[in-house]
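ok, trying the design again with the full structure, not the truncated one.
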């Protein structure tokens, strides 16, 4: 699916270090989150269990609990310092649970989640078959998967500026919307809908953008990234290349946001894997289905 891999330990470290500063820099994340929550109106039942994957400091979990006060809302994140910060967003009368977990291995039962929500987290999961197989596993039949993620045009100016400085990977790479959609279908998720929107944020200097990325924990965690400190000359060349893109007195930064929805598969629906199609049923569903033969 992809020719790059994220270092999961580095992703955890980056976001753990940014727990105290994240909410100072998350204006885009909050905007996308608000829109994603508003679009949950496509799910009309009253949910019992809502799972927020990559919950960060819990702003989204708090908003979900406010929207669904009778539901059990669970905030999950890879970085425990983020979840510790999330307690500050807890409402006394509307608390949500906080659980440390990886999106690849969600610690919940099969077919137990009504809404699986994730705001700008899945871009750190390049193994899409594994990710969406896990989403399909935990969703109830007809449950809703709603998520946003970054597309490959995100930070294109910064990537171009670094390319003018050296040949190393300094900016995270993200997967194309079509690859995401194909992977959702392959794992049995039903009727996926995806669309992309572009946001252009502006900064007074390239360093201000870099400071924001660091404050968000969105540092490069590509397993193939160059190790060690970047040389001053290379860093200076990158800054100069980015300065050349200044428009109307500001530094532009493009963020491609992919929003997607899909529904949990019915029990027993097959999904494609390397060995062919696989279908699963509970034991209860098989009881009484065996016909007697003359040899019984």
């Amino acid at each position: 699916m992809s020719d790059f891999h994220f270092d999961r330990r580095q992703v955890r470290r980056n976001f753990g270090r940014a727990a105290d500063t994240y909410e100072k820099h998350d204006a885009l994340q909050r905007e996308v989150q608000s829109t994603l929550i508003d679009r949950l109106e496509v799910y009309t039942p009253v949910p019992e269990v809502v799972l927020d994957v990559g919950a960060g400091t819990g702003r989204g979990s708090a908003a979900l609990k406010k929207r669904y006060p009778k539901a059990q809302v669970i905030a999950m994140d890879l970085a425990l310092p983020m979840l510790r910060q999330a307690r500050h967003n807890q409402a006394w009368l509307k608390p949500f649970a906080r659980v440390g977990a990886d999106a690849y291995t969600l610690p919940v039962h099969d077919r137990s989640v009504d809404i699986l929500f994730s705001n700008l987290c899945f871009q750190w999961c390049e193994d899409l078959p594994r990710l969406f197989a896990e989403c399909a596993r935990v969703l109830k039949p007809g449950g809703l998967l709603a998520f946003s993620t970054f597309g490959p045009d995100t930070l294109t100016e910064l990537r171009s500026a670094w390319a003018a400085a050296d040949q190393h990977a300094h900016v995270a790479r993200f997967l194309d919307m079509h690859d995401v959609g194909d992977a959702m279908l392959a794992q049995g998720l039903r009727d996926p809908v995806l669309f992309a929107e572009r946001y252009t944020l502006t900064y007074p200097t390239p360093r201000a953008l870099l400071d924001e990325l660091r404050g968000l924990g969105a540092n490069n965690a590509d397993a193939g990234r160059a190790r060690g400190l970047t040389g001053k000359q290379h860093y200076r060349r990158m800054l100069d290349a980015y300065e050349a893109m200044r428009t109307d007195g500001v530094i532009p930064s493009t963020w491609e946001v992919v929003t997607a929805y899909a529904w949990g598969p019915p029990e027993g629906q097959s999904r494609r894997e390397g060995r062919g199609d696989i279908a699963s049923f509970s034991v209860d569903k098989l009881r009484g289905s065996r016909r007697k033969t003359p040899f019984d």
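Keeping the full-length input from now on. The mean pLDDT is 88.
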